[in-house]
């Protein structure tokens, strides 16, 4: 979809891009005479120059060039061209007071393999592994996950970042990751009703009671969040292209479910639900 995109060019907005498409110019290489009406010679020269730069940046595999120039609600257009270098990222934390909150688990999912990291075990490995990817996809990661990881682990995540919160909101899906999943018909199965607050309870149960099943359940939940991001990314992409001339040619199939080694423990979930009920 990037090769059909003109919005990264300064001065090109929604209506102008539509006008370019309506003139029969559907991709960068097709931008040649006869040009759409309404452009001055200088504007055409600038546009051609910027499209050449776009070609070079795409050839050099530089997604940041496009995320810096496209509004966040259009970052979905990077998906096909950079899909082989995307990491879907989600974190869980201790949920303690500001200044004391720490990461408990992190999950990276690249569309094929799930990588998980646990505090006190292998969290440091995340620093190396995440560098293999050019693009990070999150939900609300610009406000939470990315700055939290950078602060807690002392590293800088310089990858291009696609935050699904803005893309889904532009489609009318708001209210958090779980609500967006529900609105789009996604089912969490045994993890239905488990949320971020409950993830904190699972970590504390693991820490205080050495309950490995609580950690397994937390990882199952964290993995579900990360894996769900790919499904939501593809769903949003397919919904977005319906408003373009590429609705049929560019549609993507639903992604397959990965093999997940962790299963939620119903006994632990039900016990913590009872304890939460009686505590609060």
Explain how this protein is built.
The protein has 280 residues and is of the alpha/beta class. It has two domains: 59 residues; 201 residues, Nucleotidyltransferase, domain 5 (2-Layer Sandwich), CATH 3.30.420. The protein contains eleven helices and five strands. The longest helix is centred in the C-terminal third of the chain and has 30 residues. The mean pLDDT is 94.
Query: What proportion of the residues form beta strands (DSSP E)?
Result: 5-15%
CATH 2nd-level architecture of the largest domain? 2-Layer Sandwich
Largest sheet: 5 strands, mixed
Q: Quote the CATH topology of the largest domain.
A: Nucleotidyltransferase, domain 5
Mean pLDDT: 94
Radius of gyration: 22 Å
From the N-terminal CA to the C-terminal CA, the straight-line distance is: 50 Å
How many DSSP-defined strands? 5
Structural class: alpha/beta
Output the number of helix runs: 11
Notable features of this structure?
alpha/beta; Nucleotidyltransferase, domain 5; 2 domains; elongated; 44% helix
What does this entry show, briefly?
With 280 residues, the protein is of the alpha/beta class. It is 44% helix and 10% strand. Helix 9 packs antiparallel against helix 10.
Strand and helix layout:
Layout: H1 14-22, H2 41-59, H3 63-67, H4 79-82, E1 86-93, E2 103-109, E3 114-118, H5 125-129, E4 135-138, H6 145-153, E5 160-163, H7 164-170, H8 177-183, H9 196-209, H10 212-241, H11 266-279
Parallel strand pairs: 1-4, 4-5
Antiparallel strand pairs: 1-2, 2-3
Helix pairs in contact: 9-10, 9-11
